[in-house]
Design a protein that fits this description.
The structure is a homotetramer. Helix content of chain A is about 20%, strand content about 35%. Chain A is of the alpha+beta class. The first copy, chain A, has a single domain, classed as Roll (Thiol Ester Dehydrase, Chain A), CATH 3.10.129.10. At the A-B interface, helix 2 and strand 5 of A face helix 2 and strand 5 of B. Strand 5 of chain C pairs antiparallel with strand 5 of chain D.
Chain lengths: ~140, ~140, ~140, ~140
């Protein structure tokens, strides 16, 4: 299924609404898969050269958000309802890849599976499950 | 039960090992409760004036880490194994308070309940449960 | 805040709609706290005398469901959206007590903190966070 | 990678140690995949013909346990440390299939992704992530 917005439309939407989500590069933007690349930078590191947990959590959250947008179109009010993340391996000092796939695309709730990888490695460094809530038109917040 | 390190010892430990965890102020450092205050700053915000999800997740992670230190002493190798967070309410544009309490303090796993509040409000903006794994002396990583 | 239904109304509602949820005894039924007691029985056991994980998960789920009912009244269509449980200690061969408290009571989502205890002990054997989704009148399922 | 025990050895191990885990049929028992089939029976139902949440949680837990056994051999003391489950769709009144795959096989922690399906359907009815803790030889419990 095609994304409801293109990479260019996503970039424009983020510039207007969520400039802080502009960080990672969008490699795939599809209703079934979003793949992001977070460039390796010193500021994401914690001592020992590991990429910090909050950086990984933020990346997983952004990937899930883009998957919501790919399925529902630009809905600025979609909010993270819950996130569960398991840290599996120490990330390498390289780019981090995030792949988000839908577990359920409902009208009000979107549940997403996100895998994070060090670029070029098969075993994931973290797995996250996120739920986004999408407010209805004219309805009260969930 | 008293903390295994003082606020001053914590500050020194962080300066040496985790300078990036120095952000929030430590209001309480005890084996049963860690309370942190994250000063309200523009850079934590996302559009609409809300404090960003990754900022809240990072604060919860730091509070749980300090609780591990309060119970086990300075163990630089303690790592977050998993984190589940539920976002409950939109944070106000004010300081955020994190309160971490132990659910279980084991030799190898510490499970922590963390509540996040907008300063001065009773209802929490988020609840998180974190598991930290503590590598044994001379043992392989978990 | 008072419960929107009495213990007797709850029993009648369950007899009609959810006979399988009749197991545990209701000790407290309030909008802020539901306390249930699961009588110790051989059939809940697994080898070693421990109460099984699924028994504990079912009890946590029932306690959260009753808290939804106490807050929203009898809504037969409320469904568990997600559950996270941490098993903290081996339960003793005694009654299990569940205490459910609301983290958030929204119109569409209710998030609940549940602690499970062996009767008479202070340290909890498990902690769970549950989200219930409540379908709106005439709306599509979440 | 081959399983460290055969289906017959698993059956014998369960008969001796966990007779209550004998319910579902083992369709695949491999270090990379465990597939179980839970036969549709009236007693798993809740009103409306849906298979109950605790039944699904118990099945996910069993599948993850078998994956631990396939990777580590018969370790009777492996215990569920945490479980997060998202209920995605109403199960059909049919057999339920559980597929467990490893996210991480550590010496002390095994993290598993479990998908549950109604037999013959592509979209999963639930997704669970489970952590099993494996006590070390001669060590204290985690």
């Amino acid at each position: 299924m095609a994304s409801k917005l293109s990479v260019e439309e996503l970039a424009r939407f983020l510039d207007e609404q969520f400039p802080q989500a502009r960080g990672p590069e969008v490699e795939v933007l599809d209703a079934e898969l979003v793949r992001l690349r977070l460039r390796y930078e010193e500021r994401h590191l914690r001592p020992g050269g590991t990429i910090s947990g909050p950086t990984l959590m933020g990346l997983a959250d952004t990937a899930a958000f883009f998957l919501v947008l790919a399925n529902h179109g630009p809905v600025a009010l979609a909010v993270t309802s819950s996130l569960t993340i398991h840290f599996l391996r120490k990330p390498a000092p390289r780019d981090v890849i995030a792949e988000a796939r839908p577990l359920k695309v409902g009208r009000r709730l979107v549940v997403t599976d996100v895998r994070l990888f060090s670029d070029g490695e098969a075993a994931s460094v973290a797995q996250a499950t996120l739920t986004y809530a999408i407010p209805g038109l004219g309805s009260a917040p969930p």
